[in-house]
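Quarterly update from the structural biology core.
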Amino acid sequence: GVPLLSGNNIIGALVVSSYDDKRHFSDVDKNLLSIIAGTASVAIENTRLYEQQSQRAEQLTTLNKVATLLSGTLLQDDVVEIIISSASTITDAHAVAFYLTSAGLKNRLQFVKGAGLSDSFINQPPQPQLADQLINSQNQNGSVPPLIVENIEDVSHDVPMRSYMVAENKQAWVELPLILNNNNRGVIGIYYNESQVFSPEQ
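Predicted structure, tokenized:
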């Protein structure tokens, strides 16, 4: 067998075998297999790049549609619905939750709406993990970076959100601060049924 290489990264292997005990592979066979593996590696990498570009183009198309829809309405319910459905489409998420800051809730974020979540979650929504940071930064006019959890096993059992995610059968999640005019206005939570590996572009 020989490795399938993409640059310096191994992306797989090409293995051949024979059921004939008298058949022994020579260096010529190995060289031929290496040539085939090189061609296959290029084809696989080109396919991956094409899929990434296609996905990126689809995401940009969706974002353009979102911008058009948002510019056509001033109703908060419509805006929230557009944001939730678009976030789910763009990220391939299994569930989404939308939170906003509220003058009446000084130390908490207000859960506005969710999709793909249980009635238990919606009726008694948890505070996002970013809530405290976001509220503190709001008071100090600071910014909050996104929270990314690729695998629930990486999260301490002491973190309240973990038990909610276990109950929802979610294995990964992202919390994105909503920023308007350099002010934090809320959080959108994006949840996945399987663990994830997020690229910098995502």
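The chain has five helices and seven strands.
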